[in-house]
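S1.2 Input.
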Amino acid sequence: MATENTKILTAEQEQQLRQPIDEYVGGIQAKIDALRKDGTDQVVEIQSSMDSLKRDRIYTQQEKEAKLAQYKAELEKAKAVESQNKAEVDKLIAEAESYLNSHFGEYYQAVVESGKAEKVQAQEKYQAAVAQLNKEHQETMAKLSDQQEIKDEKYVYKNRLFDAKMDLNKDLQEIKDRQHAAFDHKYHLIDMLRMSKFTFAETMAQRWENYKYTFNRRDFLLKNGLYIAIIIIFIGLCIATPILKGGTQLLTMNNILNILQQASPRMFLALGVAGLILLAGTDLSIGRMVGMGMTAATIVMHQGPNTGGVFGHIFDFSTMPVLVRVLLALVVCIVLCTIFTTIAGFFTAKFKMHPFISTMANMLVIFGLVTYSTKGVSFGAIDPSIPGMIIPRFNGFPTIILWAVAAVVVVWFIWNKTTFGKNLFAVGGNPEAASVSGISVFWVTVGAFVLAGILYGFGSWLECIRMVGSGSAAYGQGWEMDAIAACVVGGISFTGGIGKISGVVVGVFIFTALTYSLTTLGIDTNLQFVFSGIIILVAVTLDCLKYVQKK
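S1.3 Output.
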């Protein structure tokens, strides 16, 4: 079946190998089709007709009910035939699959071995072509003396080498296509037998094969190169920390929980700004909103009368029930943050102002107001019973993580399962096309800012509880960079309309873990900014490369 001296199969030989399989399974498939004709096929057809009838507006309600009654009667007959033939159909399917499992592997392995031999042959052909081109090039160069002619010959030689390389790639792709087609043929037969109902193992096998078939090294490195580099850095930090810190282990359960705990409030901020980045925007006021929210929450949940005032007024909420104060603090945080994000969203949507400008204005206004009204003082600690009420620890597990998980689930649902979420991606990808399609760009933009404000409010409220107060105007400085960087590293593209919630989660964990690891190692805070800056630059560069490639 293979040629005399090699394992390479011709197209005719491969067809001959597969023919017995196709004939045997095809014969069984014909019997199954005959059994399904008046049963399963009719069930599918009648159900489709019933669905179409329900959507049809030509018929009156009475006519629809009459036709539906007729369809239901026919459906019952078809289901009866289907049930009657089910055992025989299942028996035939099992017989066909047993034959495939016993004989298809021999055919597929022959194709694989043929592919390996063809690859060797293609490489030898390429090497011979390169050697011949090099020989001809050297002979031609020996005859030339004019500089322009020499330059032209080098240019021609380079192009001929490129053509040879393209021929090699073409041959290798054809081999790859042939092997992939052979693999798919088995699942095509199973698809016909079972009417597209695959087992979990079969589905996974197809996905793995499709991944290998479509795998591109350059695309893989563009998508995952940064993550690979960061993983290598973490491995290096885990090795270096015990050496430099007298046996202190970095990768412990306690450290992991601490990282997750620190990341939880920041998750809210990153999820909020991620929606704005989807619109090709950003938010420079996040850090100042955290400071504002922390200050407001600390004032409301303060233990006893406040030590500082707002515009000279001393607040005392200690007479209120603790739970009421907690809820009031949350509402105040959300309202304050949402007011300012809505203002920025309005100017962005109404006047086509870049979010960089509108949020920068917010940043300055918020910091100025909070600092002026509070004289920049810290408001001390909140009621010590509140953290144990809202974010208790169960056997050492910080439940604040569950708040972050809930936020991730909610935002994922909004992005992927709601009309607003779909419109968000549409406006971010192409606002002009979205507008033509009937989507209100104005309200989608404002909605994204409102959602961001709500998330900022939750995040600052949780951070206040985690830190047991200590709210001040200066708190949260630089947090906007961490949130934006987490989104960028997580694959939220600044070109707009591209990104996943999972990417945001990964980005937040990466930056929190990196900061925690460097702090544990004793790296100066200023140098940590250097690491963060390099990561952001690399992440945006890779994102730009992907965009350029797509274009």
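S1.4 Remarks. Residues 53 and 379 are 67 Å apart (CA to CA).
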